[in-house]
Amino acid sequence: MIENRMTSLLTRFAYRINTALERHLPEQRLFLKSDTETRFIRLRPTTQAIALVGGTFLLAWTLVATAVMLMDSIGAGSGREQALMQQGLYEQRLSALSTDRDLRAEEAVRAQDRFNLALDQVSDMQARLLASEDARREMETGIDVIQNTLRRTIDERDEARGDAGRATLALAQQGGTSSTEIGRVRDTIATLEFLTDALGTTAKDRDAQQLAADVVRADMAEIQIAQRGVELRNDAIFAKLEEAVTVSMDPLDKMFRDAGLAPEDLLKQVRKGYSGQGGPLSPLTLSTSGPALSAEEIRANAILMGLDRMNLYRIAAFKAPFAMPVKTAFRYTSGFGGRNDPMGRGYRMHEGQDLAGDYGSPIYATADGTITYAGWESGYGRLIKIQHDFGIETRYGHLSQIRVEVGQRVSRGDRIGDMGNSGRSTGTHLHYEIRFGAKAVNPMTFIKAARDVF
Question: Which of 13, 173, 242, 382 is deepest in the core (most CB within 10 A)?
Fold first, then answer.
């Protein structure tokens, strides 16, 4: 009885609904005709309303889903274009810096060659100048000896002439002399004539030596002018070299300081362990027992010390993690410091920098070092640890593949693995860490410090 009544109520309710909807959605009949018979399907207003509401909902859901997909596609395309543009700008900057560095290095080498050539020329001119000075002094000494001899000879000649005059006067007073006195007078006259000829020859020699001394003085003046020109050229070369050393060294010094590394401590460690690279440049020295260094030699020593420091900086830069671990398109995601755990475990410390990119993107060593770990570690997934100089360690986590072994030596830029999603990770990315001893530091400090250098 109750069931019949409920059925009656539902029937009347459905009838009222159909009656209310029939004003807007009249009953429709769909005829299906075959060769033998004709059938129809009756579409009540309620059925039409349900179909209309379902179709509207399906259309709205389709429009919303399409809009979301379009927005995601547009956002992903814009992000990729931005990453490609940033990568292009970074590569252009890196190429320009590399070209400028190579030009500076070539200019320094050429300047060093010119400086060595100028030093050789100055040394040769100094030798010639010293030889000319010695010759001049010898000639002045010879001229002084000749002049003294000439004065002494002239005095002897005048004295002999006086004796001859007195002898002639004595003969004239006596009215005659013996043959012996006449012979003495003749001998005296002959001696005077010989001395006169000798004095004439000596005077000619003196004039010739005086002319030669004048020529030597003129040569010395020319040599001094040439030496002054060489000094001016050397000064210009020194200025160029000093500028090149300063321009090349200041960015490196700033890079180390910005990364929190003490440049002097790094250079001491590089000098201590330096081997197999050709040796540092040595200061210019002449002789331990010779005279003090000249101003040019002091400047040359300063430049050589600067070049040595720059070479040590270059070695230290390869031994510290200043390179990028990812060279393909990527974006920075979670940074160093406290953050909400992506797995929902509260506020945690994140000890590295996440770089998200394509699955399988190459991962590179950021500095020279030795592989100390290459395998699976909880949380990190596939992990590589590299021990570098200066007590620095880098870690590369969540890799899809490891391409190195423990104990292997790697250089900056060597491929060590591929980007992945292993371990405790919510998506494809690289977890990159830098540690001093057991303490993690912000990798972005090194990345930003090297941004305008490499």
Answer: 382
Asked if residues 372 and 299 have their Cβ atoms less than 8 Å apart, the reply is: no
Global pTM reads: 0.45
- What does each of the 454 residues of the chain score in pLDDT, given as a tens digit? 677 777 777 777 777 777 777 777 777 776 677 777 777 677 777 777 788 888 888 888 988 888 888 887 776 666 677 777 877 777 787 777 778 778 877 877 787 787 777 777 777 777 777 777 777 777 777 777 777 777 777 777 777 767 666 766 766 665 544 445 666 667 677 776 776 777 777 777 777 777 777 777 777 777 778 777 777 777 777 677 666 666 556 677 777 777 677 777 767 777 776 655 555 555 555 445 556 667 767 777 777 776 777 677 777 777 889 889 999 999 998 888 766 665 555 567 888 999 999 999 999 999 999 999 999 998 899 999 999 988 899 999 999 999 999 999 999 999 999 999 998 888 999 999 999 877 888 998 888 877 766 5
Q: What DSSP string runs through 391-406? A: GEEEEEEEEEEE---T
Written as six digits, the tokens of 40 are 């129809």
Tokens of 397: 């986590």
Asked if 372 and 416 count as a contact pair (C-beta separation under 8 A), the reply is: no
The number of beta carbons lying within 10 Å of the beta carbon of residue 314 is 16
Residue 72 buriedness (CB in 10 A; 0-12 / 13-18 / 19+): exposed
